[in-house]
Amino acid sequence: MARTKKRSKVKISVEVILVLLLILVIAAVACYFLVPEFKKRADDYLQQVFGNKETPSNLAKGEHDLRVHYLDVGQGDCIFIEFPDDTVMLIDSGDRKNATAEYIVEYLEKLEVEIIDYLMLTHSDEDHVGNMVQILEAFEVESAYVPDIDEGVITTNAYRNFITALNAETYTTESGASAECEINKSEMGDLIESENESDVFFMAFLSPSPRGMYEDGEYDELNSKKPSMDSVAKNAVSPITYLEYMGKRLLFTGDVTGEPTERVMERYETGVYRNLFAKKTGGYYSVSFEEGIDVYKAAHHGSMTHGSNAAEFIDFIAPKNAVICVGEGNTYNLPDSDLLEIFSEREIPVYRTDENGTIVVTISPSAGTTIYLTRQDETVTDSAESAAVAEGAAYLVSRRKIMVNCVSETRIA
Fold it and tell me: Residue ranges per domain, the chain?
């Protein structure tokens, strides 16, 4: 008897599975291009699976995120900001010691930076201006904010070389033409805001006082001394800048000393800032300390000399977290133990570049406008290198880029 040939059930199952897989692939591709949140999650996953294992995971900025990198440059300041509209800003450049210029340039190159939209020098001290010439050589700069200092007041080579290089700086416009870098004198009332309407942020300059505003204004004081050896006057012109995005607030201070902070408090309480920062779309941005500052960059590397980080000012801004840019084993005994006690008494978490290495703060709308703070891990996977950096590992690892993974992630409420 001839046997009836039966269709394979297994074959039918395989065909069904293939069809379903094809439908899933088509749906996934459609979602990738049509649903921004799906695209972001897919990109993040692919970065984790296929990304460079030697690159810190904190180098993967999400779309619409705002990130602030407090770079570990030893005893000095260097802060890099990635705004959500894809513009970037570099505040200060650390000292020329210990190959910090190479570290900064490498760090920015890993972030695929070619043009720095905003460059800020807070003041003329070498631990802030030290690598500026090297930065200008490595990147084009579109706009710069510098102190309003008369010629001959500051005579250090580092500062003079920077001013010379900045005056010659050009950048390439979108049309391919060459344009001169726009140089602005930092002062109260200056404003940086989003270049688009979907990623609304603003950075407001709360100080220093414009020339002639007071007889003893910050610039008036500094420029009355030629050449200036007055460290208090030099530090006082550091801008106090307020950055807000998605209801989160960050404050930057450079090496500012006491009197400008007192003026900021007075101006805020008397409403000076209320109608000062005009939006290009109409109306004014609102500077608010009522709910506290989410991340406060402690002034002057955690010093309390000349009124830096005065308890009154800290209580006024009510920071929820503090970052201190300071060098390991520095000869100034910073951060000051009195400041650490102030933070401790108020239960303010403190993050330090000498202990945590480079610190990255992220404001992410996709996470419900939560702030994330990450640090570069202290573990070095190469045993030969481990012995060399056993002491002070966070400082050396973040500077030398040795197998650093961002494994410590803190959600800041």
Answer: 64-412
Which ranges constitute the DSSP H helices of 141-293? Answer: 157-167, 218-223, 231-236, 258-269
Alpha helices in 239-288 (DSSP H): 258-269
Model pLDDT, residue 38 = 64
What does the alpha-carbon distance between residue 298 and residue 255 come to, in Å, rounded to a whole number? Answer: 9
Q: CA-CA distance, 331 to 203, in Å (whole number)? A: 33
DSSP 8-state secondary structure symbol assigned to residue 13? H
Q: 328-332: long-range contacts (C-beta < 8 A, 24 or more apart)?
A: 328/74, 328/354, 328/355, 328/392, 328/395, 329/354, 329/392, 330/74, 330/75, 330/301, 330/354, 332/75, 332/301, 332/303
- Residue 109 pLDDT more than 80? yes
pLDDT at 167: 98
Before 84, cis peptide (omega within 30)?
A: no
Taking phi first (over 0 means left), then psi (-120 to 50 degrees means alpha), and beta for anything else, what does residue 330 get? Answer: beta
Maximum Cα interatomic distance, the chain, rounded to a whole number of Å? 116
Confidence check: pLDDT of 194 > 80: yes
Contact residues for 236 (Cβ-Cβ < 8 A; gap 6+): 208, 218, 221, 222, 256, 257, 259, 260
DSSP-assigned beta bridge partners for residue 143: 118, 182
CATH homologous superfamily for the domain 64-412: Ribonuclease Z/Hydroxyacylglutathione hydrolase-like (3.60.15.10)
Does position 361 have pLDDT exceeding 50, yes or no?
yes
Helix-strand-coil percent breakdown of the chain, rounded to 5? 35, 20, 45
Residues β-bridged to residue 351 = 323
| Half-sphere exposure of residue 99: CA atoms within 13 angstroms, side-chain side | 9
pLDDT of residue 60: 63
- Looking at residue 37, what is its pLDDT? 55
- The residue behind tokens 């460059």 is 119
**DSSP structure string for 324-357:** E---TT-TT-PSPHHHHHHHHHTT--EEEHHHH-
**Which tens digits make up the pLDDT trace of 207-245?**
999 999 988 899 999 999 989 989 999 999 999 999 999
